[in-house]
Amino acid sequence: QRRLVESGGALVQPGGSLRLSCAASGFNLEYYVIGWFRQAPGKEREGVSCISETTTYYADSVKGRFTISREYVKKAIDLQMNSLKPEDTAVYYCNKWGGAYLPWGRGTQVTVSS
């Protein structure tokens, strides 16, 4: 059974940093374009960033602050988040990018607050 597991979320102060990690079971992340999504309370889920074999994409709201990477040793897709803002508060998920989603994982909560 293919499953995605997100980790790394926490409560952090504005301006702080977090590193999220996306791991998979039942399939190999390397074969897919994988993205990070987030859903804030009362809002729709939005795409934040994705990574293919050769390229990356970032939403304007996170460009210059977030960095997505493939971590081949631990077989994960990481999202390094710097200069965090209160508006980054959301549950963060990873999944295939562009539709045909796999079952969504539980996500990981990121809360940016002083």
Furnish the topology, listing elements before pairings.
Blueprint: E1 3-7, E2 11-12, E3 18-25, E4 34-39, E5 46-51, E6 56-58, E7 66-71, E8 76-81, E9 90-96, E10 108-112
Parallel strand pairs: 2-10
Antiparallel strand pairs: 1-3, 3-8, 4-5, 4-9, 5-6, 7-8, 9-10
**Helical amount:** under 10%
How much beta, percentage-wise? over 45%
Mean pLDDT: 95
Low-pLDDT segments = none
Q: Given the structure, what is the number of helices?
A: 0
First-residue to last-residue Cα separation: 40 Å
Biggest sheet details: 6 strands, mixed
Series of secondary-structure elements, N-terminal to C-terminal: EEEEEEEEEE
Structure description:
It contains no helices and ten strands. A six-stranded mixed sheet has the order 2-10-9-4-5-6, with no helix packed on it. Strands 1-3-8-7 form a four-stranded antiparallel sheet, with no helix packed on it. Strand 4 and strand 5 form a beta hairpin. It is globular, with a radius of gyration of 13 Å. It starts with a strand and ends with a strand. The model has no long low-confidence stretch (mean pLDDT 95).
Give a short overview.
By secondary structure, this protein is mainly β.
Provide tags for this entry.
0% helix, globular, mainly beta, four-stranded antiparallel sheet
